[in-house]
Amino acid sequence: MGGAVSAGEDNDDLIDNLKEAQYIRTDRVERAFRAIDRGDYYLDDYRDNAYKDLAWKHGNIHLSAPCIYSEVMEGLRLRPGLSFLNLGSGTGYLSTMVGLIVGPFGVNHGVELHKDVVEYAREKLEDFIKNSDSFDKFEFCEPVFVVGNCLEISADSHQYDRIYCGAGVQKDHENYMKVLLQIGGVLVMPIEDQLTQITRTGQCTWESKNILAVSFAPLVQQSRADGANKPDSVRLPPVSVRSLQDLSRIYIRRTLRRLGGGGDDDDWDWGIDGRGPGPTQRHPATTAAAAAPTPQTLPPPPPPQKRKRRRRCSRRRFNAYVFGDSQLINPKPQAKLGCGSIGGWEEEAEEAEAEGREERGEEGETTTTTTTVEEEEEEEEEVMVVGGEEEGEGERERDMAEVETLKQANVLRDQIMALPLPESLKAYLLYYREK
Ligand SMILES: C[S@@+](CC[C@H](N)C(=O)[O-])C[C@H]1O[C@@H](n2cnc3c(N)ncnc32)[C@H](O)[C@@H]1O
């Protein structure tokens, strides 16, 4: 199955083709596809084929064609905060893309028949978390994979907002799949050679729509040879409330990402602020997250004109920061740091602090801070004038190249590395990144 769109040279090329052919139709899905390189889920020797619209099978490892995954991702109507179950989760490619959309307050579970494939998926996931720049640009719900036959899920299992089945479902198992779904939830599965989208509209009602004609290998049936050898039921991973430590990490990374302007999530729904899971019932983890401090307590993103006011690298830097009221504040200037530090924040944080003080009527401090800001603006003007005299075309070009390099850098990782924190804490904030 596949071959519906032209082959790409690389991942971006493949996604361009899928978009052009209307398989990818929404920004959210497009971003998830661009963030994960399909080639990373291939064995090295076969990677060259990863950007063709073709399925790939090697031993137990099996990836569906990109046009199918595009239809699945669109058909699932994913949003932040939803719970997702992948039946036949394979390499984890699809689950990882879903994790970028459902975000840290979603749930992301997968069941896969083959132990070696689950091990492969776990390796790929670890590689993504440790080495991909996309991991720092998005908020993420890590998939959890279990080994087992997805037709043997224990009867007392929780239900999910979104379910995908990656292998052909027999008509006999249609109801089994449908009851795993929450009311309001969406199930996408291949059944009778049609990729079908089923929405649970009530306790006993579902609506069904065919999306695409497909040909899938069938789900492996239960190994229930006789009653005596009845296999154990497959237990899905528990849905647990996030620890305070985890929540702190999520919020610190989110705050840094927003302040540094290095993320893709500024215009995303975050799934915990009421714009996430809409009409469907909230999952326990999501509900617990909703009780946690919401993004509304974060400082609003700085207005665009302030971000544009870029300062030169020779500017004064601070190396002490305090987290207060969800804002990063530098209590006092301490030292000069190089360009790799958290450029741009200190001025903005200081201004925000000054504005806050002004609102609270703390005049004395406001005056002091305002003076500092004014001095800095003068300093900046001076630099600009000197720059105007000194800078030739070549230097301007070098500056532009420098800006480009900075844009390409992994902003969040650099920010965390520049924080005056113990190494172990930085490693925790980086999810033990090796890159
Ligand atoms: C086309 S692959 C899915 C690939 C997956 N979507 C990915 O992102 O890599 C289908 C997967 O379903 C698994 N599978 C087949 N029957 C199964 C069953 N009864 N229970 C669990 N997994 C099953 C296969 O081992 C295979 O990995």
CATH architecture of the domain at 11-229: 3-Layer(aba) Sandwich
Determine the fraction of residues in helical runs and give it as a percent range.
Answer: 25-40%
CATH class of the domain at 11-229: Alpha Beta
Q: What is the CATH homology-level superfamily of the domain at 11-229?
A: Vaccinia Virus protein VP39
Number of helical regions: 15
Main sheet overview: 7 strands, mixed
Order of helices and strands: HHEEHEHEHHEEHEEEHHHEEHHHHH
GO molecular function, one term: protein-L-isoaspartate (D-aspartate) O-methyltransferase activity
Pfam family, one: PCMT
Region (Disordered): 263-313, 346-399
Membrane topology: Lipid-anchor
Structural summary, described in words:
- About 30% of the residues have low confidence.
- The two termini are about 35 Å apart.
- Helix content is about 40%, strand content about 15%.
- It has a domain of about 220 residues: Vaccinia Virus protein VP39 (Rossmann fold), CATH 3.40.50.
- Helix 8 crosses helix 14 and helix 11 runs antiparallel to helix 12.
- The protein is an alpha/beta fold.
- The strands form three sheets. A seven-stranded mixed β-sheet has the order 5-4-3-6-7-8-9.
- Bound molecules: S-adenosylmethionine.
- S-adenosylmethionine binds next to strand 2, helix 4 and strand 4.
- This is Protein-L-isoaspartate O-methyltransferase domain-containing protein 1.
